Each structure stands twice: as structure tokens, then as C-alpha cells.
Amino acid sequence: MNAFNRRAFLKTTALAGAALATPAVLRPAHARTTAITIASLFGDDKPETKIWLKISELVEAKLPGQFRFNIVKSGALGGEKEVAEGVRLGSVQASLSTVSSLSGWTPELQLLDLPFLFRDADHVRKTVDGAIGGELKQKLLSQNFVVADFINYGARHLLTKEPVTKPEQLQGKRIRVIQSPLHTKLWSAFGTTPIGIPITETYNALATGVADAMDLTKSAYAGFKLYEVVPYLTETGHIWASGVVYYSSDFWSRLNDEQKSVFEQASKEGAAYFNQLIVEDEAKSIELAIQNGGKVLKPEALDEWQKGAHGVWDEFAPIVGGIDKIKSVQALS
Questions:
Q1: N or C, where is the chain less crowded by C-beta within 10 Å?
Q2: Is the CB of residue 233 less than 8 Å from the CB of residue 298?
Q3: How many C-beta atoms lie closer than 10 Å to residue 20's C-beta?
Q4: What is the largest CA-CA distance in the chain?
Q5: φ/ψ of residue 151, rounded to 5
Q6: Within 10 Å of residue 122's Cβ, how many Cβ atoms?
Q7: What is the Cα–Cα distance from 59 to 61, expressed in whole angstroms?
């Protein structure tokens, strides 16, 4: 073989080798792409969906091509309880949830739901960022929920068909509640009949008279267009609706250390973003509700609201860690 032919042969061999090598590199990279099913109760315009768009962007920036986020919106996978079951079983890889909806698996979470315990969002944050938050994460992990961070949906307020500013005006009303013993106890203390109804079925229940009232955050009030069926919002702020950004333990266990670190950081940034969006969304939500006939009321006799609620503290103290733990949270500054 002369020098020219040898050089041509070597060049051709090198090109062929490169051509073969390139698909070999691409194929495994493509095969490593993992699809993640995310459940959101709301559409594109709400923080509950926007947070996952943010997290997906942050993950993609650090782990390009490794994950594909399939965000299933508008409650298509069910309410929080149904989604949580899917997360536990691994059919849903991640979602957000109020702690109320997860308390059936982790009763200790009800500490964060105690009525009139928290002064404001900062008070809640100090609690979940400390030892109590760490304990609750471990409790949830034992139930196959991996919590990356806590979020804050805002305060819950009373929603009614007729004006209600005093506790006695609730006597005899049927009130939709989260399917949680604490929420049932709270509203029973005010003489109502609590009815556990998934959030995705609440509008129809109120429209058809199955329920007369409910409580919810301002953002979700507008998100579900509930101002159409319960136009009065009384700013009781009785419970700060804590939540979690959480993943299926089955999904989490398949991640390597680098991937876990990226998801943890992305989720924390996403949680901070969510909390900011909620504050902005609440203002827009109330404006939208008022434009559509909603009315915002101030509660009267706040001490009577608090008195009725504090019986819940006594009943749930043994479940959440004792009255001393409750008072230690109350005293946080």
C-alpha cells in the first residue's frame, strides 16, 4: 500500500470510527432521560404550576437532557389525597400538598395546622426551618414521601354564602372541610356540621347545597372560582396553610447523589419562588373575586373565634408532641 493510499485508508477508518462512536455516545444519553409525572391542581397561571416550571428549568440547567417533566394540570390526576396515594405508590413522581392532606399518614403534621397558633408567614418559616421541620420530614419519609422543602399557601379564611363575621352565625351550617380530623374538630366547635369533600368536588357541592360554607386560601378561592358560589370571604386567618414540595421515595431512590443534590437545591429555590408568587397572587385573586361579585369582610369578636379554636390545641396536643411543644412554637420570635 503506497503512502497516499495508506493515508486515505487511515482517514476513512478514522471517519468511520467517529461516525460509529457518535451514536454510541448519544444513545446512552438519550436512554438516561427519565420522565417525571408531576401533579398540579391548577392551570398554567397559578403558583402551583409555575413552581414546577421553575424547578424543571433549574434541573435542566444542571442536568441537561436527563429529566423530562410531564406536568399534569388542573387536577386531572385527582385531589391532594388521590395524588398523595399515587406518590406513595410511585405512579406520580412529585407534587405539592398541604400538610392537612398528608396528616392521615403523618398525624404530627397537624402541629402546623393548629388554629390561631401562627402570627404570620415568617413565624411559620422559622418553625419549619428548625428542628420541628426536620422531625416532620423524617416522619413523612417513613411514609414514602421525600420532602425537599416546605411552602406556604397563605392563611385560610372563611367562605360563606351569606355574611358571617361572628362565630355564632355559623350555627347549623354545613361546612366543607379538608378530610382531616383537626379541621373536623375545629368547625364542630363552632356548631357546624363538617363534611369532608375533595377540593376538586367542592364547587359543585356548594352550588347544589350539599355544603353552605368552607375555608380556603385567597389564591385558591379565585383559582377554583368559588366566589361564584360562596361570595363572602371573612378574613379570619385562622390557619396558615403550610405545604410541602415532595417526591416519591421510589423515584428518589433511583437518583444518584449529584441528581439528589440538584433536585434539593432546585426545590428550595422553587419553594422560595412559590412563596413569593402566592403573596402576589393573593392580591390579584381578591381583586378578581371582587370584580366578580365577591365581598371581603372583617371578623368581629376575634377573641371568641380564638376561644372556640383553642379546644383543638388541647385535643391534639398528645398527637403533635404535647402542649409544651405547641407553646414553644407559639413563643418563637
A1: C
A2: no
A3: 9
A4: 104
A5: -130, 170
A6: 12
A7: 5
Nearest residue to 43 (alpha-carbon basis) of 190, 222, 212? 222
Of 254, 282, 231, nearest to 90 by C-alpha is 254
pLDDT score for 10: 34
Spatial separation of the C-alpha atoms in residues 121 and 125, rounded to whole Å: 6
- Phi, psi (degrees; rounded to nearest 5) at 209: 90, 5
In angstroms, the CA 261 to CA 258 distance is 5
The answer to whether 179 touches 189, Cβ cutoff 8 Å, is no
Phi and psi angles of residue 141, each rounded to the nearest 5 degrees, phi first: -60, -35
Cross-strand pairs, 295: 232
Cell digits of residue 254 = 433511583
Instruction: Give the span between the Cα atoms of 164 and 170, in whole angstroms.
Output: 7
* Amino acid at position 33, single letter: T
How far is 227 from 221, CA to CA, in rounded Å? 7
> How confident is the chain (333 residues) per 10-residue block, as mean pLDDT?
42 37 38 91 94 98 98 95 96 96 94 95 96 97 98 97 96 92 92 93 96 96 96 97 97 98 98 96 95 97 88 95 95 89
Nearest CA-CA partner of 39 in 26, 49, 28, 27: 49
Q: Grid coordinates standing for 76?
A: 386531572
Q: Which three cell numbers stand for residue 44?
A: 398554567
Closest C-alpha among 112, 52, 103 to residue 80:
103
Residue 163 CB partners (closer than 8 Å, separation 6+)? 169, 232, 234, 295, 297
